[in-house]
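Structure tokens please, single chain.
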Amino acid sequence: MKKLKLPTDDMKQERLDSVSTMERREFLKIGLVITGVFAGGTILSAMSNMNKVFAAHEGKVEKYPHKPHYSMVIHQDRCIDCERCVEACAKTNDVPAYGYRTRILEKDSPDAIGLKKEFIPVLCNQCNNPPCVRACPTRATYKDKKTGIVMMDYEKCIGCKTCVEACPYNARYFNEEKRSVDKCSFCYETRLSKGETQTACAAACPAGARIFGDLSDPKSEVFKLVHQVEKAVWVLRPEVGAEPNVFYMKG
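Here you go.
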């Protein structure tokens, strides 16, 4: 008896890619997203799309909470692990050699000829519902009311590292010189507040893997990428309910 061959992840993705934009739009109209293609492409599987990324505690939100609502979209497959982003971040924000505000993770993924390297840039996700802010006993870490960036008040920090433990993205470290926890702030102090429009890491990336901008502006590239329907867009660890402002996609 001939054994059935289970479809690989690449085969599943190829089938998903074959779904037309018109089909995707029709599914979105009724609150569904296409999650799979079966039976040679003749049957689509779908799931509810009613829970939005920016769902508030009550379950829905009318608009993006901040203006500007800073966000980043990372094209994961464009990252070449050159670490120019890491170097630019460290230089711009005076990050010590033992510290980090952004890093690049590496994993092995199966492909047609064996295993291939995948590189995943990570940083503070500037969450809408940040566990670190809830955990801080002195309110040293807080969410800026205007921009939504999760910031640090170094003078209030007592070094208890409760926020470090609470962060689901391992995006914080203790800065020995500052005697305080430190983290990514989308270069607010060093660039954005001085008129720059890009973070140091986004500006330094030679492959265009990091796209930074205002998610509340329909004309911005991040808005267009997050809201397009042709390609999948996802966030890291959605199950923790942090509602990140850093998104990932391929292509």
